[in-house]
Amino acid sequence: MFKTASLIVCLILGLNTVKSQTDVSVHFGGAFPLGAFGDQKLDYDRGVFDISWGGEKNTDKAGAGLGANVGLKLKFNTPSLLQGWGIIATADVFFNPSNSEVKDFMEDVCEAAGTSDYSYYDYEYTAPSYINIPIMVGMNYQTQVADKVSLFAEAAVGINIGKTTDLHLFQEIEGTIEQYDPYYDWYDYYDCSVESNSTWTFETTTSLAFQMGAGLMFSDKFSIGLHYYSLGSQKIKGESKWDRTQTIEGDTDYDNETGKFKYGSINPAMFTLRLGFHF
Questions:
Q1: Is there a domain that residue 10 lies in?
Q2: Domain range for residue 68?
Q3: Which of 92, 108, 206, 244 is within CB 3.0–4.6 Å of 44 for a Cys-Cys bond?
Q4: Given 3-state DSSP classes, what are the helix, strand and coil percentages for the chain, each rounded to the nearest 5?
Q5: In the chain, where does DSSP find H-type helix?
Q6: Residue 79: what are its φ and ψ, rounded to 5°?
Q7: 223 lies in a domain?
């Protein structure tokens, strides 16, 4: 009995020691795209479509907009010999939608397709978004600069799992078409409706990534930090699907096509300003 009680006490003390040497935190913030990741060159009137998923093979522009970041960080404090230093393990999720210029361009493309003499025209589109999940390990240094206020800095490396969500375009047209009849030497007019769906599905990629950042810790409970993330090179490739349903005077035809595509690469990079809660 005494041995069992002693073992339980030692176990509790050990857990408390581990807990005191480990900091667990969650953080939330904005993700601000940098460089080519947030850039694009689009001009419908001049036929400029300089963006990675638009078919250009020699561009790294992604057209990403302001996004969000959520993540988890574990910090393991090192022995007193390395006072202030700690080992960190982090896992984050970044979400960046396409920016407003990309969405405006897609609106222009879709609306231009409906300028002909159709009795009805409708469309829907979904612009790609960018999801990145970096998982890293690294080092953290923290030192007290005022009462209940500490300054920290850290850096880490690891892998990033990157996913570009589907690009999708749906169009529905109703109107009248004309067909020449050589026997009677005249044109016949028929009611016609067309529905088409086009989808580009992008492959998930993995790449080498790193991050570095600094910030302030308050009462060992809250932190605010500015971090830079470089998430490596991601190939833009995948599978395209297209299908169309056309009805002329009650007769319906179906058509579809699939294929592979491979364009350029993107290099997601961003600053994130975030708030952390420590436990």
A1: no
A2: 24-278
A3: 108
A4: 15, 65, 20
A5: 2-20, 100-112
A6: -55, 165
A7: yes
Length of the chain, please? 279
What's the domain count of the chain? 1
Residue 246 near residue 193, CB atoms below 8 Å: yes
Instruction: Return the structure tokens found at 102.
Output: 């990309």
> How many CB atoms sit inside 10 A of residue 166's CB?
14
How far apart CA 92 and CA 201 sit, in angstroms, is 23
Do residues 95 and 67 lie in contact, with contact meaning Cβ atoms separated by under 8 Å?
A: yes
pTM listed for this prediction: 0.84
- Stated as kind and residue range, the H or E segment containing 67 is strand 67-77
Q: How far is the C-alpha of 234 from the C-alpha of 163, rounded, in Å?
A: 9
Report the SS3 class of residue 245: strand
**What residues have CB less than 8 Å from 12, skipping those under 6 apart?**
none
267 part of a folded domain: yes
Looking up tokens 């574990």, which residue turns up?
74
Question: Pairing relation of β-strands 120-126 and 167-181?
Answer: antiparallel
11 falls within a domain: no
Q: Between the CA atoms of 11, 14, 15 and 19, what dihedral angle is there, to the nearest 10 degrees?
A: 170
251-266 and 269-278 beta bridge pairing: unpaired
Phi/psi zone of residue 83: left (φ > 0), alpha (ψ -120 to 50 degrees), beta? beta
How far is the C-alpha of 44 from the C-alpha of 109, rounded, in Å?
A: 7
Tell the burial category of 209 from Cβ atoms under 10 Å away from its Cβ (0-12, 13-18, 19+).
buried
In the block, tokens 């300089």 appear at 50
Q: Residue 138, exposed/middle/buried by CB under 10 A (0-12, 13-18, 19+)?
A: middle
Q: How far is CA 63 from the centre of its chain?
A: 11
Q: Mean pLDDT for each consecutive 10-residue tract of the chain (279 residues)?
A: 44 42 93 95 73 79 96 89 89 96 86 68 90 98 94 98 95 79 76 90 97 96 97 94 88 91 92 96
